[in-house]
Amino acid sequence: SGINAEYEAVVSTQSTKQWYQRRVRGFFLSFVSNFENKNKSPMAALSSQQTVILSTLLFVITFSLLQIYAPLLASTPKLTIVGGFGSSLLFFFSVLAIGNLRSETKWPEVIICLVIAVIGAASVHRVSATTCFLFSVAQIAYLSYVSSKVHKQRR
User: Which parts of the chain register pLDDT below 50?
Assistant: First the structure.
């Protein structure tokens, strides 16, 4: 194939180490030039539709894993806290999905997402529901803070 033929040609003229160094340097320089080019970002943001689909998929996967591992998560006090944190991810993914469906997420939607997450956590353990509530409140406080900073910069 093409790389093998190129490799054979290079080995005859220079050492293998120099050939690999040239290949790695070329890859690195192309990556840096793409990163510095502001019009072509190598890590472009997802569209709203893609974000809704991805966050909904992650919500379903997280909820499924919480239900599968519910007996394990309810077995020790530390794991019930982990179950609460996992359930707070349900809150985060649902707020993310609703926020991308609408142009603005208001408090009623946030409260509905919180109730859904706490119900999901309560199916694991009662302590998980409490810790889910606490983690979710911390998440919404941070999301509100970041949102205010982002919207202040846009003005």
Answer: 31-32, 34-40
Please report the pLDDT score of residue 16 as a whole number. Answer: 60
Structure tokens at 101: 């469906």
C-alpha 63/C-alpha 32 separation (Å) is 39
3-state secondary structure 48-78: HHHHHHHHHHHHHHHHHHHHHCHHHHCCCHH
Query: What pLDDT score does 60 carry?
Result: 97
CA dist., res. 97 & res. 56, Å (int):
6
- Sign, CA dihedral 78-82-83-84, equals positive
Instruction: Using alpha carbons only, give the angle 34, 36, 38 rounded to the nearest 5 degrees.
Output: 90
- What percent of the residues of the chain are helix, what percent strand, and what percent coil, each to the nearest 5? 85, 0, 15
pTM, 2 dp: 0.69
For residue 36, the model assigns a pLDDT of 47
